[in-house]
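Weekly structure sync, notes
Attendees: PL (lead), two postdocs, one rotation student
Agenda item 3: pending single-chain targets
PL asked that the sequence for the first pending target be pasted directly into the notes so everyone works from the same version. It is reproduced below exactly as submitted, 342 residues in total.
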Amino acid sequence: MDSTATTDSTGTAQPVANRTLGRSGIEVSPLGFGCWAIGGEWGAPDGQPLGWGKVDDDESVRAIRRALDLGVTFFDTADVYGTGHSERVLGRALGKRRSDVVVATKWGNLFDERTRIADGQDDSPEHVRRALTASLARLGTDYVDLYQLHLSDGDLDAAAQLREVCEELVAEGLIRAYAWSTDDPDRAALFAQGAHCAAVQHRLNVIQDAPEMLALCEELELASINRSPLAMGLLTGKRSAGQVLDAGDIRNAPPAWLPGFTAGAGVDPAWLARVDGLRSVLTSGGRTLAQGALGWLWARSPRTVPIPGFRSVAQAEENAGAIAKGPLSAGQLAEVEDLLGR
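Predicted structure, written out during the meeting:
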């Protein structure tokens, strides 16, 4: 695994080196781009928003191509994001540069592209192949680098079968490796019994640590792909108390698994206070708050690959700019722990 030295002998910050997806040998930039937000508006049958609001597809394409120019080689999406729309936008943006990047997508949810409604789940072995075939068509490619189960609390017996199907897909050249998107170390460990399981995707950010999962990644040689690395936008510094979000934004009507936001009222003031308490250390070295939050993740473990979301060229540039700033130092990492009382 590549090292993450923070400075050279002159004290100059050193960029974060590329990382490897676990045991797969697949090399990626230390930062990936999460493509949930660029899927646009979609929701559940009861009207619950599941996207991040309206999006400009042309701007999304420009942002992805700008990220490529800045050295980002890892893009994470899911078939259900925007009910297929995110995969289509990513495929359009990559075009002939597909072979230059590592593409990850996910399966397990059912949806209707016409109505933009997600309406169920399917953990059957038969659905894996159906879902993959559809994702390949939307992405405009004939293989997926990392295929991830998107049922975070899925049944263990069913998952064992799905793991074997994934091994078949590797043998057929349709995928290169696979993973489970889950916050449960036991589920991640079950998938990791497969020879070509390379990673686990789980929630991790400076406010919400995951020591058990990181220990598992180290023990089993898995990459730690970090969703919510900026705490759903709280660690960008662009949210204030009482700031109401768009009706089509999931954070405006947050489900139980999404803390830090209050229905119809925006950000929880207690979470804002935590962010403010970390601002000084995270913005050291000329970093923005978001860049400092990403720096914490790289300092936390040599296996982490954060995947912040984006909807604009400006966000792409800010996130990619964190690579050159390097990880936080050991001293800064300890200071964060003290400030959070951990």
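Discussion points:
- The two ends are 27 Å apart (CA to CA).
- The CA atoms of residues 7 and 13 lie 4 Å apart.
Action: rotation student to compare against the earlier draft before next sync.
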